[in-house]
Predict the 3D structure of the following.
Amino acid sequence: MNYSRQRESIKEYLMSTKEHPTADVIYQHVKEAYPKISLGTVYRNLTLLVDLGEVRKISTGDGTEHYDADTSAHSHYYCRCCHRVMDLEVTPSVDQILAASSAGLGTIEIANLLFTGVCQSCLNEQSQK
Amino acid sequence: MNYSRQRESIKEYLMSTKEHPTADVIYQHVKEAYPKISLGTVYRNLTLLVDLGEVRKISTGDGTEHYDADTSAHSHYYCRCCHRVMDLEVTPSVDQILAASSAGLGTIEIANLLFTGVCQSCLNEQSQK
DNA sequence: TGTAAAACGATAATTATTCCTATTTTTATA
DNA sequence: TATAAAAATAGGAATAATTATCGTTTTACA
């Protein structure tokens, strides 16, 4: 993989913000430094960075993906009203968090824990090759 | 809200499966009983059912939403290889689950806990009206 | 510096989802 | 049961997010 200033700029912007921006928001910002950058380049590099593990993709179900350069273990709170994604300290107990919805965050209507990986049956198929 | 056989059929199918199907998969199935049903009807009813809290929407980031009629507290495991979503017992400790990736599930590369609700600043704005 | 591989910009294409409208179904009630 | 208003539908057009294509530009390195 070769260096690219556009990719560097995307990463830099993502590391500088806590806003969990969408591809389009990232595009608008990076455009200030690279006015000719195309949205396709933003998408291509985001996919790359996610695959490299340098960026996390956050799927809220609001119709567009959010991105986060903070790859440390932490969770998120999504407001279905303003569509913002906020950071949460990782809290040990799911039940505790559910009970603690009065902690000043807002209401908690849905708590969803999603694990992503490669399942046993896919691992088996892959090892057969 | 009025009764509709199409909506009933969608709910029935969702309750009968543990596959966490996408709108299109649901459409293909319900079409067997209602050959003239349209995809728009499936989407409209899924949105309705989610808003009523009778169905959960699961966003995996694979480009399309998954749906689940099991609204009991539970988590999911998503295989980025076969794109299937599997049920997980709710486990009290996130760290425990992370450590337990050898439990026969497969690999766990990402664990993301997402809370959805209405945040404090949106609640404040709403109460001003 | 020259060249091959990688990345880019512009834009077309694709896919998931929502919107629109005339028609049909449902429900309440006479 | 007939009827009329409200709600839902089918079909298709429209939209929005994302991916693919392809000729041009950058990057790496001999």
Chain A has a mean pLDDT of 87. Residues 54 and 69 of chain A are 6 Å apart (CA to CA). The first strand of chain A starts at residue 56 and ends at 58. The helical segments of chain A are 5-16, 23-33, 39-52, 94-99, 120-128.
